[in-house]
Design a protein that fits this description.
The structure holds two protein chains of two kinds. Chain A has five helices and seven strands, in the order αβαβββαβββαα. Chain A is an alpha/beta fold. Chain A has a four-stranded mixed β-sheet with strand order 2-5-6-7. In chain A, strands 1-4-3 form a three-stranded mixed β-sheet, covered by helices on one side. In chain A, helix 2 runs parallel beside helix 4. By secondary structure, chain B is of the alpha/beta class. Chain B is elongated. Chain B starts with a helix and ends with a helix. Classes of the chains: A alpha/beta, B alpha/beta.
């Protein structure tokens, strides 16, 4: 006769078999070529200022019990700043000496990876543009993405992990394509 | 219901589930997006031409499945994952790079593109492991056909990258060998442009 402790052990082993159980990092940001082409039309070059995480927003993302951390800096605000820098640099619009500065705050940053058929993620951030210290732009942008998933953790978790940069790409597309943002750079 | 019966049903379900997993042959998704930062500023020659990078929407969505370890497979989208890296490598070598859908894209004429560069990506993956699925060896072959504005072949840029990763390294990044292969292949693509510079002037 098995005890309840044995039963719990079996459940734990099954859970291990169905998940990867590792601490993981989000993929490095890969610039979007659509974003770069959009950004090349920006009227001026900018520098990237301070990006923070809003109090109460988690610094990491949970994917079925696996903690996914930012591969740059100490949180996802650093990831977002890095993403901006990469796209600005590739578009030839990054100038550390510019009087125009983009800063921001990460308001929401999450991936719902528990679904067995579909998973989704969302990022929301406030972007502020200042020209020589004078505020020219202050808007919140939100991007989300859904994808087919799986019951199996070893399929669902890597797939969710790989979607994160794609959500960031969508977020930046909204910023670069905003006519008010373009106007703020003039 | 007795505890023994519960456990028999539990193990029966567990075994059925594991068999279903094994039989289904699910492919583990991995990424080929390497560290493209290393390419920036790495170009040795700058050819004064505007060129087109031709990757079709169909190729961007193309999923490739190759072997991993333990009888499992890995899946990835090579054109989607490598497009940015190829674009950066070409931007390091030519004064302007424009994305086009193919040789017939109106931008070839309207933007005065000197060449159209069409990549073909071939991949292989392998792992000798019987218990872990991430590939320990991954190869990427880039074959970029360079054609002139009329579609005539000018040259081919070839680059081969091989990435290796062992368990201690890839346990926190299952795509590591693929990313290393991508980094090497893209670095060699830059060198291939330099080697073919005389044909591309």
């Amino acid at each position: 006769m098995f005890s309840s402790r044995s039963l719990l052990s079996c459940v734990a082993i099954a859970a291990l078999l169905l998940s990867t159980g590792c601490a993981i990092k989000a993929p490095q940001y890969n610039a979007s070529l659509d974003n770069i082409e959009q950004l090349k039309k920006a009227p001026a070059s900018v520098k990237v200022g301070n990006f923070t995480v809003q109090s109460g927003t988690s610094g990491s993302i949970g994917l079925r019990g696996n903690q996914m951390d930012s591969p740059v800096g100490s949180d996802y605000a650093a990831y977002l700043a890095d993403a901006l820098q990469k796209e600005l640099k590739l578009a030839g619009k990054l100038d550390p000496n510019s009087k125009l500065e983009i800063s921001g705050q990460l308001l929401k940053n999450d991936i719902a990876a528990a679904g067995i058929l579909t998973n989704s993620g969302e990022i929301e951030a406030r972007f502020v543009v200042k020209n020589d210290g004078v505020q020219r732009y202050d808007q919140v942008k939100r991007a989300d993405l859904s994808w087919d998933s799986s019951l199996l953790g070893y399929i669902a978790i890597p797939k969710a992990q790989q979607q994160y940069p794609l959500i960031v790409q969508r977020l930046l597309a909204l910023l670069w394509g905003d006519a008010n943002f373009q106007e703020a750079l003039k | 219901m007795s505890t023994g019966l519960i456990l028999r049903r539990f193990f029966g379900t567990l075994i059925a589930l594991l068999l279903a997993v094994i039989a289904s042959g699910c492919a583990h998704p991995i990424s080929l997006m390497g560290n493209t930062d290393a390419l920036i500023g790495a170009g040795k020659v700058k050819l004064d031409h505007a060129v087109g990078l031709a990757i079709s929407e169909e190729d961007r969505k193309r999923e490739v499945i190759t072997p991993g370890g333990g009888g499992d497979k890995v899946s990835y989208l090579p054109y989607r994952d490598l497009e940015t890296g190829i674009y950066i490598a070409l931007s390091e070598s030519f004064t302007k790079v424009v994305r086009v859908s193919g040789q017939q894209d109106p931008k070839v004429k309207s933007e005065g593109l000197r060449f159209v560069i069409t990549p073909q990506i071939n991949t292989t993956s392998y792992s000798p492991s019987i218990v872990t699925w991430p590939p320990t060896i991954f190869t990427i072959e880039l074959v970029c056909k360079v054609t002139d504005g009329e579609g005539r072949l000018v040259t081919e840029l070839r680059a081969m990258g091989e990435g290796r990763a062992e368990f201690d390294e890839f346990k926190s990044d299952f795509s590591l060998s693929a990313k290393r292969a991508a980094d090497e292949a893209l670095g060699k693509l830059l060198r291939s442009v330099t080697d073919n510079a005389s044909k591309l002037r």
